[in-house]
From TrEMBL:
Region (Disordered): 1-21, 135-188
Positions with biased composition (Basic and acidic residues): 1-18
Feature: compositional bias, Pro residues: 144-154
Name of this protein: Uncharacterized protein
Bias (Polar residues): 170-188
Amino acid sequence: MARKRLSDMVRQEAEKSSTAEVEIVPDESVIGVQSSASSAHESVDSAKLDLEDKIIELKMALETAQNQERSLQEKLLQLQAELEDKNQFIDRMKTEIQEADLKGKFKQAQEAALQLSEANSKLIEELKTLKQENESLKAALQPPAQPLAQPPQSKPLEKAKSQLIRRPYSSPSQPVSGEDFSNSTWLL
């Protein structure tokens, strides 16, 4: 916005100076009054000097504005770079916090597992001692057991075994006769 205003002002001043010259030229061409021509010429010179001063002043203001614009753009770029760095730093910190949180939870889980393991070991030992006590109490409560007698061997089985007819071994090359056939077969 400042550039347009300055450039517009420079144009306007330049147009004024050219229009002033155009108006002055016909005044000089008039033959009648030389004093008015010299006063007009002096006013043109003073107007030119004023315009030149104004132009110099505007050029300096323009340069200053351009320098400020450059410095602001550089500052903007620096701030954007800093913002990006800070955002990356924040992301890294979030990641580290999450990792630290996970490590803490993992450590707590390990400690809990260790405590449960120790408690489980104690319970197993207690269970073993209780089982031993239970067995000793059962043994104390039961009357002494009589020696176990050998079971009587069943004689019917022995008879059954002796009544079985064994099948004689026969080879396929030997013919089986009628008498041998009945002895060599089983009857159900």
